[in-house]
Amino acid sequence: MTFYFFDTSALVKRYHQEIGSERVNAIFDDQDNILIISELALVELASALRRKQNQGEITIQALNDTLAHFAHIVASVCLCRRRIAPGCH
């Protein structure tokens, strides 16, 4: 079992073909991997994909489909929330 933290740039590679997408897809598709994302990534992914749509790299339909797919994935997994207070070790 391997843990991976995915930032927004890695998540974009999952949903938009670019350099690094193959590696990201392999990590996502390996059922033995544990994937971790920040709650902030949910908003950042929407923003990054909207930017791609505004620049003509993806269609509005692709944007909507991708966000719906991602929302479905997030809703189907366990979300763990941990807050680290100042001074905690």
CATH class: Alpha Beta
Q: Uncertain runs with pLDDT below 50, 5 residues or more?
A: none
CATH fold name: Rossmann fold
Number of domains: 1
Structural class given helices, strands, pairing?
mainly alpha
CATH superfamily: 5'-nuclease
Describe the structure.
By secondary structure, this protein is mostly helical. It has one domain: Rossmann fold (3-Layer(aba) Sandwich), CATH 3.40.50. Helices cover about 55% and strands about 10% of the residues. The chain has four helices and two strands, in the order E-H-H-E-H-H. It has a two-stranded parallel ribbon. Helix 3 (about 40-55) runs antiparallel to helix 4. The model has no long low-confidence stretch (mean pLDDT about 85).
